[in-house]
Amino acid sequence: MGRMKEIFIGEGDRYNYSQMCLLNNPFSRGEKQKVNFYSVDEKIPIFLTLIMGLQHAFSMVGGLITVPFVIFKFSVCFACVELQQYAIAAALITSGLCTLIQLSKFPIPGSEKYFGRQLFVGSGVLSVMGTSFTFLPIFEIAIRQMTASGIDGRTAYGKMLGTSMLCGLLELGFSVMPLKYIKRIFPPMVTAITVILIGVALIGTGMKYWGGGAVCADMVWKEHSQVTDQNLTFPPPFPTCEAGEVQLGYGSRELIGLGFSVMVFLVFIELFGSVFMKNCNVIIALLFGYLIAGVTDYEGSDYVDTSKISDAKAITFLWVETFPLGLYGPAVIPLLIAYLVTTVETVGDISAVFEVSGISMDSQSFNESLQGGLTSDSICSIISGLFTSMPNTTFSQNNGVIALTKCASRRAGYGAAFWLVLMGVFSKISGIITSIPDCVIGGMTIFLFANVLVSGIALSATLDLHSRRVKFIMALSLAIGVGVTVWPFAFQDMRGSSYTANFWRCSECSDTMKGLRNGASIFLSTGYCVGTVVAMFLNAILPEDGGVVMYDETKKLSEEESNESEDGAAAPLDEYDSDKKDIEYQKNEISA
């Protein structure tokens, strides 16, 4: 009996469940409670595995559901609720399966013979996988271009899956490169600029949802493909947004208020929440906003459409819905840049896992985990396409879960994978998610996306911001990247048409020229793509600073030169005499 208890719930002070769930008193002046740390290979009990895994899964769900939900609702098929529910379920299942690969560390047979060293698949540490935000802007723009050209949304999505699978081979090539070359190609400055630009782009997307939905916002700015009339100067200034049975204008205070309730509860959790609640703050705050929307109404109309839940299938799995795989040439270059970005992110994420797990990064184990993590990233991005899901890469927010819970055991990762697959299979969960009003989703995503921006700012804080070279590269890269993100219509038509923008008019071009034009449009309209390329180019051509010579150093050099001229050789200055001369010199300067 004692053995069973040890396996399932553990014994002793190392497994204190009360401190994990006890609410926090932010005004207490007493001694803070200490927590236990669980190392990477520690065999924590099954119950703790499931609890810790649930925290990781909850911290991921907010980010996992956002990307497929946004792509399918606002780009692929706005009215296809079942398709949106399937996309969310597929993303959850794929994330769980890819996490299992990343947690493992399989040696690749024969790699020593061909590469001179043993290669692995998987990092072997608590690093989880999920659908990356990095690919969201590219998928949005590319699918919009294809649908504007007459290609239906499902086919357009299939083409993007096939293209992303092909481009995923680039990261596989990086995974076998020595670490020193990767660091040389992607220095911290380039990484910081890239992450900042991704955060800026995503925050703009989150604001669209908060005001009532991306479709409404796009109609306001004449960007959505429904606005195709060449003679139409302005669309209706405040298009109607749907929130369940409620129809209100974009930016209505009722919709803004529902989204704001999510932010209010985020602050409450940060003040009073337990460790468990803080780790799951995004999903808990989202559920709170959903609850507020469910118990309130607008003139008798409900904000939540419960039919989406009742109509959802009880169980689903991969390949219930399929998409014809293909290639979309214009998206190749932007996707290659996106994989460059995810390579940088994976290096940073795995490094962060080692840091919060208390493992030295100056070891062979770190190099092996980094190589295995990049290989797993590439393989998972490729098989994600076969699973009808967008590319999967490492999730950085889970490093915060490790830091807060002090649990770095891989078993927690296996628990997270179990919960993710379970949530994906039971598609009623997807039905609940699709019934959440867009404004509530916006209140959650704008906070989630802002964390990406904050991560980029934190990376930039490690740079020498007093260096003229660093400031110049960051200023020019961010000027172009943020400028394009805020106003991409310098390279795109504000209407849905893909070929009428003044930058490159191509309405009568051949299919080949249209493909080239679309590729240039996607690249130039995606802020982090063009900003990253500018940063990499400037970093490669601009020489390092020569340093700054201070006033006292200049004067001492001149004194040493005068001593050399008088004595014929360099004579060391007496420290006291030197200081005395400094004071006399400064007095003369002041009196003058």
Automatic annotation (TrEMBL):
<feature type="transmembrane region" description="Helical">
    <location>
        <begin position="46"/>
        <end position="71"/>
    </location>
</feature>
<dbReference type="GO" id="GO:0005886">
    <property type="term" value="C:plasma membrane"/>
</dbReference>
<dbReference type="Pfam" id="PF00860">
    <property type="entry name" value="Xan_ur_permease"/>
</dbReference>
<feature type="compositionally biased region" description="Basic and acidic residues">
    <location>
        <begin position="578"/>
        <end position="592"/>
    </location>
</feature>
<feature type="transmembrane region" description="Helical">
    <location>
        <begin position="416"/>
        <end position="434"/>
    </location>
</feature>
<keyword id="KW-0813">Transport</keyword>
<feature type="transmembrane region" description="Helical">
    <location>
        <begin position="280"/>
        <end position="298"/>
    </location>
</feature>
<feature type="transmembrane region" description="Helical">
    <location>
        <begin position="83"/>
        <end position="103"/>
    </location>
</feature>
<feature type="transmembrane region" description="Helical">
    <location>
        <begin position="115"/>
        <end position="136"/>
    </location>
</feature>
<dbReference type="InterPro" id="IPR006043">
    <property type="entry name" value="NCS2"/>
</dbReference>
<feature type="transmembrane region" description="Helical">
    <location>
        <begin position="189"/>
        <end position="210"/>
    </location>
</feature>
<feature type="transmembrane region" description="Helical">
    <location>
        <begin position="472"/>
        <end position="490"/>
    </location>
</feature>
<keyword id="KW-1133">Transmembrane helix</keyword>
<protein>
    <recommendedName>
        <fullName>Purine permease</fullName>
    </recommendedName>
</protein>
<dbReference type="InterPro" id="IPR006042">
    <property type="entry name" value="Xan_ur_permease"/>
</dbReference>
<dbReference type="GO" id="GO:0042907">
    <property type="term" value="F:xanthine transmembrane transporter activity"/>
</dbReference>
<feature type="region of interest" description="Disordered">
    <location>
        <begin position="555"/>
        <end position="592"/>
    </location>
</feature>
<feature type="transmembrane region" description="Helical">
    <location>
        <begin position="522"/>
        <end position="542"/>
    </location>
</feature>
<feature type="transmembrane region" description="Helical">
    <location>
        <begin position="440"/>
        <end position="460"/>
    </location>
</feature>
<keyword id="KW-0812">Transmembrane</keyword>
<comment type="similarity">
    <text>Belongs to the nucleobase:cation symporter-2 (NCS2) (TC 2.A.40) family.</text>
</comment>
<feature type="transmembrane region" description="Helical">
    <location>
        <begin position="255"/>
        <end position="273"/>
    </location>
</feature>
<keyword id="KW-0472">Membrane</keyword>
<feature type="transmembrane region" description="Helical">
    <location>
        <begin position="318"/>
        <end position="341"/>
    </location>
</feature>
